[in-house]
Write a structure and sequence with these properties.
By secondary structure, the chain is of the alpha+beta class. The protein has one domain: Orthogonal Bundle (Tyrosyl-Transfer RNA Synthetase). Helices cover about 45% and strands about 15% of the residues. The protein has helices at about 15-25, 45-55, 60-85; strands at about 10, 15, 35, 40-45. It has a two-stranded antiparallel sheet with strand order 1-2. Strands 3-4 form a two-stranded antiparallel sheet.
């Protein structure tokens, strides 16, 4: 994923990591936004605060990649949990091994 440290755009290219975070993670997290970093826990109240922390180097691209992964994984788990509680004739949610 294109995510140069502390850069929102480079040579006309949008930072894909920031794009996905703004559109796929931030809308789903509660406030304050908490990001686990190598140095501890970062806390901010908005996407703008996250952008500022990234642009100043306070947040590393790997910190944000892990944050994005955790948020998306949580959303998939919530979705799977909801699907597992509803019965649809056309969906088989059972786990089977394919040999």
């Amino acid at each position: 994923m294109f995510a140069p440290p502390a850069v929102a755009t480079l040579n006309g290219r949008q930072n894909a990591l920031l794009y996905y975070i703004y559109n796929s993670a931030v809308p789903w997290v509660s406030r304050p936004i908490l990001v686990e970093t190598r140095d501890g826990l970062w806390s901010g109240d908005s996407a703008d605060a996250l952008d500022l922390a990234y642009s100043t180097g306070e947040l590393h691209p790997n910190d944000l990649k892990n944050f994005l992964f955790d948020v998306l994984l949580d959303r998939v788990r919530q979705f799977h949990k909801r699907l597992a509680t509803v019965s649809y004739d056309w969906i088989d949610m059972s786990v089977s091994s394919r040999a």
